[in-house]
Amino acid sequence: MVQFFNQFSRRRFLLTAGASAAGSLLLKGCVGNPTQPSGNATQAQQVATNISPEQAPETTTAKLGYIPIVESAPLIVAKEKGFFAKYGMTNVEVAKQASWGAARDNVEIGSAGGGIDGGQWQMPMPYQISEGWITKGNQKIPMYVLAQLNTQGNGIAIAGKHKGQGIGLKIAQGGETLFSQLKQADTKFKAAYTFPQANQEFWIRYWLASSGIDPDNDVQLLTVPAAQTVANMKTGTMDAFSTGDPWPYRIVKDNIGYMAALTAEIWKNHPEEYFAMRADWVDKNPKATKALLKGIMEAQQWCDNFDNRQELAQILSQRNFFNVPVDVLVNPFMGKYDMGDGRTIDDRTMATFYWKDERGSVSYPYKSHDLWFLTESVRWGFIPEDTLANAKALIDRVNREDLWRENASEIGITDADIPTNTSRGVEEFFDGIKFDPENPTAYLRSLKIKKVKV
Ligand code: CA
């Protein structure tokens, strides 16, 4: 693949620079300190009046779906702390989704049909929906990826009965033996996630395969609703579970199992979930889209501040959001993990990030990460291999990093925090495997266990 990722064109830079100058004048008084609460309606409306008439959104309403895991925090905080309202989006509804499948169904029908306009997604769901891979009747419903919501914050939980048998970040010989014994006894090791062919399945597959366990032959992978998985692990019918906080932490807290790995251990600063909307909604409401995105970007900065994380945990723990005890959220937010097998982690760089991590911008949606999710989909035979040959056009259609950049300039984000390339560059996993976005085929070739023949 030749020059998959380029530096931005001079033309786009000039456009952005122009918008930045205009934006900083127009938004004077809005830019300010994102940590200041502006939750009450009166204050929010007052601030919204600072928006110039030409920036006024076409609609003040949007319906955004979320799943009650830490990835959704920027959406909930943008609503609760008044960041949406600050930019004139005074009637945003953040709607809890019963499952990822329900979120997919709801975005298919849109808010006009009682569904949602967009919201929180695992990758590559916006692509799967845009291309009609997972929709009813394979209908193509174009979506735009507008921001990444977070990095890290996920993990792989193992049922307590397997403790001490070598199933850790790197699966030791004892673990390998256990997998093969269970396979021979026709009771394969069962590992679950809440939606197939997206992040959770990719993390568990990557982790297993890196230790020589073939996820398609040596274990049984299946989709199970989160609550049911926990119940099944309690009764001993489920062996492992890949998901986001607070579920892994609860499994340890309730003494149901332990954590084999944090996803931050598998791939430090890895891309996780995304904010994406139906393309028709964005095309019809470009100013409202920018207002939503600005609200989310400010919320991400607020969420990222460790001084705010106790309050963040309190907001999310509420009955109408996650409905969990606040203490199951606080520790992971501070990078403190009790892995449940005697191992503890106390390292802020292992926590979830919303705005910036060690690799730079979190909120900016790197095209190179979308390519990894598509490449991994090819690796496991979820999508045809020739998808990679057309990946550039597909990613250019779905990933609207251009809108992120425009907004960043308009809300006064410094140049240092605005990536200069759509690629984050070479990625490295815990087992030494490297993904060079310029050559996804070389990555596929370097992997021992895969379904695709390259
Ligand atoms: Ca996740």
Describe the structure.
With 454 residues, the protein is of the alpha/beta class. It has two domains: 10-151 and 272-336 and 351-365 and 397-422, 3-Layer(aba) Sandwich (D-Maltodextrin-Binding Protein, domain 2); 154-266, D-Maltodextrin-Binding Protein, domain 2 (3-Layer(aba) Sandwich). The chain is 39% helix and 15% strand. The protein has helices spanning 10-26, 41-48, 73-80, 83-86, 100-109, 125-130, 173-184, 199-210, 226-235, 247-253, 263-266, 279-284, 286-304, 309-317, 327-333, 367-379, 391-398, 401-410, 440-446, and strands at 61-66, 91-96, 118-121, 143-148, 154-159, 189-193, 219-223, 240-244, 257-262, 274-278, 336-338, 344-346, 356-357, 360-361, 427-428, 434-435. It has a five-stranded mixed sheet, sandwiched between helices. Strands 7-6-8-5-9 form a five-stranded mixed sheet, with helices on both faces. A hairpin with a 2-residue loop joins strand 13 and strand 14 (360-361). The longest helix is centred in the middle third of the chain and has 19 residues, at 286-304. Mean pLDDT is 90; it is low at 7-46. Calcium ion binds next to loops.
Any descriptors?
binds calcium ion, single chain, D-Maltodextrin-Binding Protein, domain 2, 454 residues, alpha/beta, globular, 15% strand, 5-stranded mixed sheet, 2 domains
Structure, briefly:
This protein has 454 residues and is α/β, with parallel strands linked by helices.
Percent strand equals 5-15%
Can you give the helix content as a percent range? 25-40%
| Overall average pLDDT | 90
Terminal CA distance reads 15 Å
**Total number of beta strands:** 16
Biggest sheet features: 5 strands, mixed
User: In angstroms, what is the radius of gyration?
Assistant: 21 Å
What is the 3D form?
globular
CATH superfamily of the largest domain: Periplasmic binding protein-like II
Strands in their spatial order, largest beta sheet: 2-1-3-10-4
Total domain units: 2
Specify the number of helices. Answer: 19
What structural class do you assign from the helix and strand content?
alpha/beta
What small molecules does this complex bind? calcium ion
CATH-defined architecture of the largest domain: 3-Layer(aba) Sandwich
Topology-level CATH name of the largest domain: D-Maltodextrin-Binding Protein, domain 2
Overall CATH class of the largest domain: Alpha Beta
